[in-house]
Amino acid sequence: YIKRVNKETNSAQGMRDIMRGEVQLEIEIHRPQIFRQTIVKDGASMGLDLLFGPASSSLVVEEVRDGAVKRCFPDVQRGDRITKVNGQQGDSAALMQAIKASDRLEIEFSRCAG
């Protein structure tokens, strides 16, 4: 996870702009924590509000509500990323399809350590 580029910490777009325009960069990177969890929907919704873009390779947890994830894995939190579902990884559309296609999900989450 890129946490800071030069003095910019608040905006991903701001960090991108600095990386494109500056000759000298000071970048702070944090390693991710990776954890896996089995989620069984049992007919319930996932209970997650997710953010993603068309070119993204993960789904970002915006909010955790009542549902299968909160029941099976109450430690998930805002900002966690879903990076793999039932062995499927790649783009956000593939991850969403994998979530919809099965009642039993093996999900890999990523969280910024630190």
Report on this model:
The structure is a single chain. This protein has 3 helices and 7 strands, in the order βαββββαβαβ. It is α+β, with helices and mostly antiparallel strands and 114 residues long. A hairpin with a 7-residue loop joins β4 and β5 (59-64). Strands 3-7-6-5-4 form a 5-stranded antiparallel sheet. The protein has a two-stranded antiparallel sheet with strand order 1-2. The chain has helices at 12-21, 68-72, 92-101, and strands at residues 2-5, 27-29, 32-40, 48-51, 59-64, 81-85, 104-112.
The number of helical elements comes to 3
Strand residue content: 35-45%
The main pleated sheet reads as: 5 strands, antiparallel
Q: Give the strand line-up of the largest sheet.
A: 3-7-6-5-4
Run of helices and strands: EHEEEEHEHE
Q: Which structural class best describes the helix and strand composition?
A: alpha+beta
Secondary structure layout plus pairing:
Layout: E1 2-5, H1 12-21, E2 27-29, E3 32-40, E4 48-51, E5 59-64, H2 68-72, E6 81-85, H3 92-101, E7 104-112
Antiparallel strand pairs: 1-2, 3-7, 4-5, 5-6, 6-7
Keywords:
single chain; 114 residues; alpha+beta; five-stranded antiparallel beta sheet; two-stranded antiparallel ribbon; elongated
